[in-house]
């Protein structure tokens, strides 16, 4: 994925993660990739991915369990 560095990057990362999720790349109930893993993949800072993950969590697409990570929610679990 080519990021437009002239615009805020975290929304672009969030859009790509949404697209992947909607395409079935992350099954409901599965553990979501780690922030550092995604930061490396997108070649961005971990804080950028954290903002994207926070947006997805705010939409109900992810739930985070302290000490365990983030997990993908199914459409029936979203608000």
TrEMBL record:
<protein>
    <submittedName>
        <fullName>GntR family transcriptional regulator</fullName>
    </submittedName>
</protein>
<dbReference type="InterPro" id="IPR000524">
    <property type="entry name" value="Tscrpt_reg_HTH_GntR"/>
</dbReference>
<feature type="domain" description="HTH gntR-type">
    <location>
        <begin position="7"/>
        <end position="75"/>
    </location>
</feature>
<dbReference type="InterPro" id="IPR036388">
    <property type="entry name" value="WH-like_DNA-bd_sf"/>
</dbReference>
<dbReference type="InterPro" id="IPR036390">
    <property type="entry name" value="WH_DNA-bd_sf"/>
</dbReference>
<keyword id="KW-0805">Transcription regulation</keyword>
<dbReference type="Pfam" id="PF00392">
    <property type="entry name" value="GntR"/>
</dbReference>
<keyword id="KW-0804">Transcription</keyword>
<dbReference type="InterPro" id="IPR050679">
    <property type="entry name" value="Bact_HTH_transcr_reg"/>
</dbReference>
<keyword id="KW-0238">DNA-binding</keyword>
